[in-house]
Amino acid sequence: MAERESWGLAGRRTLRWLAALWLCVTGGLTPATVAQGQGLPADTELAYFEVSSLENGVATLEWGTISEAGAVGFKIYRANALDGYRTPIVYTAAAGAPSTPTSYVVTDTLQAGTTTWYWLADVNVFGVEQALTTPISVATGLQPVDQPLTYRMYFPFVGN
């Protein structure tokens, strides 16, 4: 299955066009209302998305928005591998105005000795999600590292 993040700008535009077409056909919207942006995915401008702290196995995820036009909430997804199954872990209602910067904080308890990946998506009034970020990761405890084995070899010095 192709991921939204890997579709690029052209893919996202195609998805928006298909969503607009679907809303015109099934939702009774006219092309004029769709052209004005009604019913399309939210236009959220993300300022940052980061793991701000990791203490005692609890990761603190923070993100900030510049604008939240059309967004009603945000979902955070978690996976144990970059290409693993993404489980939604939290939904947070949008608290900002369309043009007011807003910050959000969520915590997540992690297992020791693992690497966890997070994605952030916004949700519009129709429940349509749009990925906002590329994945970020956090590692807990010691992680195995693959390093080639090196050997020191000593040869006796043979003089003349």
Question: Any idea what the CATH superfamily of the largest domain is called?
Answer: Immunoglobulins
What is the CATH-assigned architecture of the largest domain?
A: Sandwich
Please state the overall shape, judged from the principal axes of the Cα atoms: elongated
Number of helix segments?
Answer: 2
The main sheet comes to: 5 strands, antiparallel
On the 0-100 scale, what is the average pLDDT? 75
Count of spatially separate domains:
2
Text of the CATH class of the largest domain: Mainly Beta
**Could you say what the CATH topology of the largest domain is called?**
Immunoglobulin-like
> Which regions contain 5 or more consecutive residues with pLDDT less than 50?
1-5, 28-40
Oligomer: single chain
Give the H and E element order.
HHEEEEEEEE
- Extended strand count: 8
Distance between the termini: 69 Å
How much strand content do the residues show? 35-45%
- What Rg is obtained from the alpha carbons, in whole angstroms? 23 Å
